[in-house]
TrEMBL record:
Chain ranges passing through the membrane: none
Biological source species: Sphingobium rhizovicinum
Protein name: Glycosyltransferase family 4 protein
Domain Glycosyl transferase family stretches: 225-380
Family annotation (InterPro entries): Glyco_trans_1, Glyco_trans_4-like_N, Glycosyltransferase_grp1
Length: 410
């Protein structure tokens, strides 16, 4: 079987969970006999050749241009019969075309793929709620509240400059391309339920967790005499939805005696691309941490996937602060892979993947005081760390994820 996998980015150049999951699927399929997969990742213009939106990167790997923004989701490269996009697909001649996102690529690419390869089946993996929500697909109201349902009236309240009629027409436009999809994949039941409530047929949405390349747990960090499990770490992209500011506020609010027993390592990138207000807020929090508790917070910057096992071996907990629902954060799977419990908010895909006592602990979403109290409980020995490790769920291995997708393709 021949499968073309499209992603909104290539993990060589972007470290988000969606592109990592798509590339893992590509690797997993190619590791199985009798199947071939191609990976086509969207890239910035400077990564491409002059005069063409398609560039070869490695064997069976391409980069493709595109800048379809979230409100319109409209493709920005040529997709006609004589386009480089069409030539690439004809060369691959896939049995299945799997879009592991549509943002940046553009919804019209689904139609173009169906036209160029009419016998190929179309699969689309859903990630955020970009087809539903104009606010970066996060289903958070513009005043900061969580959004529980979408409708032209609800969305107009967040975007009064966009008429209810235009919001309705956008929904019709998105669904017209979704109608061309043979099967949708959702990495969580939570995300599936939201899209089904929006109008997708439940029978067309299959839940398959994101897979990760094989790896084994690293032993719990060796403790010195009298030392507790007080090393926390954040891994992932840094933006205002991910809640690194909430995590910092929780640590800064800890009693002085507790601050001496804990540390927070921040491994992540993307802060430089955020708004000036958010950059300034995070910078001020880091300065306060340095002043109030020197050495408690350490900012390390970006990391590579190959480093992750070594980095996690030196910490006790993986902490998340996301202020939106999340879908199926890859960092949770990565924590399980390396044997580290997760502390995360109690909403959405996070609460589905991490349940109290099974995989980690939850705190009240968007509430730094709740996280702060949980950290105090940990330092006071009120949490059974060994029990969390013992009952930790397994992660879906790359080969098993590939097998599940191949079964779906067949």
């Amino acid at each position: 079987m021949r499968i073309a996998i499209f992603s909104h980015a290539h993990p060589n150049f972007s470290k988000g969970g969606g592109e990592i999951a798509a590339y893992s699927l590509f690797e997993g399929i190619n590791a199985l006999p009798g199947h071939e997969a191609w990976f086509i990742g969207r890239a910035e213009q400077q990564m491409l050749h002059l005069g063409s939106p398609v560039a070869s990167l490695n064997e069976r790997e391409y980069l493709i241009g595109g800048n379809a923004d979230i409100p319109r989701l409209s493709a920005t490269i040529a997709l006609g019969e004589d386009s480089d996009f069409a030539d690439m697909l004809r060369t691959i001649d896939p049995d299945v075309i799997h879009f592991h996102h549509y943002v940046f690529l553009g919804l019209e690419m689904i139609h173009a793929a169906k036209r160029v390869c009419p016998r190929a089946k179309i699969v689309l993996t859903l990630h955020e709620f970009i087809g539903i929500c104009l606010n970066s697909g996060q289903m958070i109201k513009t005043d900061g509240r969580l959004c529980y349902r979408s409708s032209p009236r609800e969305c107009h309240g967040c975007f009064p400059q966009t008429s209810m009629e235009d919001i309705f027409l956008r929904e019709v436009y998105v669904k017209s391309f979704f109608d061309l999809v043979d099967t949708f994949v959702s990495p969580s039941d939570f995300l599936k339920d939201r899209y089904v409530a929006w109008g997708l047929s439940a029978d067309k949405v299959i839940v398959i967790e994101n897979g990760l390349e094989d790896g084994e747990r690293v032993p719990p960090r060796r403790l010195n005499e009298g030392q507790g499990r007080g090393r926390f770490a954040y891994f992932g992209q840094i933006n205002h939805f991910k809640g690194i500011d909430l995590i910092l506020e929780a640590f800064l609010g800890l009693p002085k005696a507790v601050r001496k027993q804990v540390s927070l390592d921040i491994y992540g990138s993307g802060l430089e691309h955020q708004s000036a207000d958010f950059r300034e807020k995070v910078s001020d929090l880091l300065k306060r941490a340095e002043k109030q508790a020197e050495g408690m917070v350490r900012f390390h910057g970006a990391y590579e996937r190959e480093e992750l096992g070594g980095l996690m071996s030196g910490v006790d907990w993986v902490v998340m602060g996301s202020k939106w629902w999340e879908n199926s954060p890859v960092v949770i799977q990565e924590a399980y892979k390396y044997g580290r419990p997760v502390i995360c908010p109690d909403i959405g895909g996070m609460a589905e993947k991490v349940q109290p006592g099974r995989g980690g602990l939850n705190f009240r979403a968007r509430d730094s005081l709740s996280l702060q109290n949980l950290i105090v409980d940990i330092t006071e020995g009120q949490v059974d760390y060994d029990g969390l490790i013992r009952d930790m769920p397994s992660f879906l291995r790359q080969s098993d994820c590939a097998e599940a997708h191949l079964k779906l393709y067949h």
